[in-house]
Design goal:
28% strand; 32% helix; alpha/beta
Length: 274
């Protein structure tokens, strides 16, 4: 049977335990509040500077890019929105896909954070110009060039280009009535790779032809033509390397006497003389 003194001691121990528990809880809440204030309101995590590395050598609007990056990270969640875009903690290694869609010229982007200096450096890779893709329409059987865009080695259009003439750079004349937006591919990867191989084959054959025309994409074909060469039909489904020997043989015959050359069947060549 418990005595009066035993019950009193038990109550005392419980009271001490509650005091310790409440004390720990109060300390924890103070620490949590301090950490929250330090994170959200103090200047401890406030960014001092944001810099785009090598901006002067890149055709980029640094202020616009920094603003869009801030918007991207700030809108990730309610927490990031609460902390704000000037808080170094919300900056991640990469922005979301929306940022890259809004800046199709940027291939990749790396963000480096210096917590001690509270400084952010942005290093980005831009797409390099490989050629020009031009959208055309037909008016009274005449091709009219409407707009042109630069494309990179992956066939992605990323920047408006001037309307160019001659055979100085790769040019794709597209009269297929497609609507492409910046950041879109001109063709699927395999078809585009073969299109580039067609350019390389024409160069290897010594022909000054750097313009290809796309008409009926469902047939997956491309056409090369100039005043000094016949109309040449290529297939985009395979590598046209076999045609080099065809060009060599036709040069012996005199290529100017050929009306058209059809290379749309692999390892086969059909031509018509004028």
């Amino acid at each position: 049977m418990k005595s009066y003194f035993d019950e009193k001691e038990i109550k005392k121990q419980k009271f001490i335990f509650k005091l310790k528990l409440y004390g720990i809880l109060i300390v924890f809440l103070f620490l949590l509040a301090g950490a929250g204030y330090l994170t959200a309101y103090s200047s401890f995590f406030k960014i001092n500077s944001i810099a785009l590395i090598d901006a002067e050598n890149k055709q980029a609007n640094a202020n616009e890019i920094i603003k869009d990056l801030k918007d991207s990270f700030n809108g990730k969640s309610k927490l990031t929105s609460f902390l704000g875009a000037d808080n170094i903690l919300i900056w991640q290694n990469k922005p979301d896909e929306t940022f890259f869609k809004n800046h199709p010229k940027i291939v990749d982007l790396a963000i480096r954070k210096d917590y001690l200096e509270r400084k952010i450096e942005i290093d980005m890779d831009e797409r390099e110009k490989l050629g020009v893709w031009c959208k055309t329409t037909t008016n009274n059987q005449e091709l009219i060039t409407n707009n042109c865009w630069w494309f990179d080695e992956n066939g992605v259009i990323f920047e408006e280009a001037p309307i160019v003439e001659g055979e100085m750079i790769y040019k794709i004349i597209d009269s297929s009535n497609r609507e492409l937006a910046l950041g879109d591919r001109i063709l699927d990867e395999n078809l585009f790779n073969n299109l580039i191989l067609i350019f390389k084959t024409l160069e290897g054959a010594g022909l000054n032809l750097k313009t290809l025309r796309l008409e009926n994409l469902s047939a997956q074909e491309a056409i090369a033509e100039s005043l000094l060469t016949p109309k040449i039909y290529f297939s985009l489904r395979f590598d046209p390397d076999f045609s080099l020997s065809v060009f060599e043989n036709l040069k012996k015959t005199n290529l100017e006497k050929v009306e058209y050359l059809d290379l749309r069947i692999k390892n086969r060549a059909y031509y018509k003389l004028k």
